[in-house]
Fold this sequence. Notes:
It is a single chain. This protein has helices at 2-25, 32-51, 53-61, 63-91, 108-115, 132-146, 162-167, 194-205, 233-241, 251-254, 275-286, 301-306, 472-483, 506-537; strands spanning 121-126, 151-156, 176-181, 184-188, 211-215, 245-249, 263-267, 290-294, 312-314, 318-320, 335-338, 356-359, 364-366, 373-380, 386-388, 404-405, 409-416, 452-456. Residues 427-437 have low confidence and may be disordered. It is elongated, with a radius of gyration of 35 Å. By secondary structure, it is α/β, with parallel strands linked by helices. The strands form five sheets. A seven-stranded mixed sheet has the order 6-5-7-8-18-17-14, sandwiched between helices. Strands 2-1-3-4 form a four-stranded mixed sheet, covered by helices on one side. Strands 10-15-16 form a three-stranded antiparallel sheet, with no helix packed on it.
Amino acid sequence: xxxxxxxxxxxxxxxxxxxxxxxxxxxxxxxxxxxxxxxxxxxxxxxxxxxxxxxxxxxxxxxxxxxxxxxxxxxxxxxxxxxxxxxxxxxxxxxxxxxxxxxxxxxxxxxxxxxxxxxxxxxxxxxxxxxxxxxxxxxxxxxxxxxxxxxxxxxxxxxxxxxxxxxxxxxxxxxxxxxxxxxxxxxxxxxxxxxxxxxxxxxxxxxxxxxxxxxxxxxxxxxxxxxxxxxxxxxxxxxxxxxxxxxxxxxxxxxxxxxxxxxxxxxxxxxxxxxxxxxxxxxxxxxxxxxxxxxxxxxxxxxxxxxxxxxxxxxxxxxxxxxxxxxxxxxxxxxxxxxxxxxxxxxxxxxxxxxxxxxxxxxxxxxxxxxxxxxxxxxxxxxxxxxxxxxxxxxxxxxxxxxxxxxxxxxxxxxxxxxxxxxxxxxxxxxxxxxxxxxxxxxxxxxxxxxxxxxxxxxxxxxxxxxxxxxxxxxxxxxxxxxxxxxxxxxxxxxxxxxxxxxxxxxxxxxxxxxxxxxxxxxxxxxxxxxxxxxxxx
Length: 538
């Protein structure tokens, strides 16, 4: 009778022993009560084995037992391999992004910023427990830590740690990230993505804040408009996020370029700046300042001619691209697609540019040779492009003897190595001045080497409508960084909108549907029926 019911001891003891082992695996120390329960379970199993030893021996000698033992051994081996792989993965953690757009890999800019960090950065992340934002932010910071950065991350629940939350003035229930380095502090309260975090690190580690002055007064692109397609607020917002201070200046009202301007941007004036304004800009460059000019076709013709004083020739034309590989799909030939092969080697373009999209551009190349100036063309169209000078809207555009044919220059930069050769002052104007816009006196010009002038034959690439297309923003931000001497900021930046895509024709989609819904299930059913018929014949 005892042998008949002894299996109950074994069953209960086995369950108790299994439960004890699971408990022991997840605690640091075993409490006496649980240890006693585990001991009793072991005794029950041992008692069953002793009482029903003949039945156990008979079961072990059966063929089914051998098969069961073999299966159990294979399961144990598989579990051991899984545990070993997990231990190795934890110990030698690495990240590999297999997406075509590298959506989950850190950008080149982030890697350069992390490599340049000189001091430890504490990252205090305040998120509610279980928040999805906490999980995604933790995964992002793991990528930063994998680069060997000095970021030290710690998570805090503002509800459970009210004193710490009060100390850092945490009021948001959504989440807040506080970055600390010495006495400096930066905060993230809405966007916790890579770009926001990297920009916060830049602001935290950068000791100086450069001032970008945007010239106004001639219907230039509006640096404060983030909504209209022709505004430039999105690009200026990117610069502001990277610790640049953006302000507008009126050269007539200011009687020149303010002394605190580190860089001047002239973004496609619809009418010509006054002669005195052009002289103020020249005096600024002669004094070692940096100037970026973006100028669309037909706009500001006097300014276009005046840029020749810097050795840069701006054409009165429209660049047309005939190479279909460098045209925008669905657009006309005035849409220009530039890639790395379109650009010349230059520190501003270090690491490549990627794809840049221009819309209705004019030629910008090397002009008259000027003493003390070094000029380089940075970007060109393909050999199939030309600069059309006689568009009348009636005749079909075609290259002729008046046009630049093949490899049309689009972007040029001039560096002032000897400011004495740069013409500045009333004698260089050759035009009458308007009341209240007196020219710069040549004797008042302070000259210093190091001035830089960048001229781009298009402004649409930096406008709200196109700045986030391709690598347009990288071209602008890298240009600003190089003009200010911040070479460590030149890189390809993170693009949150980058996603992989798969395009299929109707026929290809139908093929995938037939394979997934008919072929694969049909094959499985057919193999099952074949197995069933084979077993029926046995």
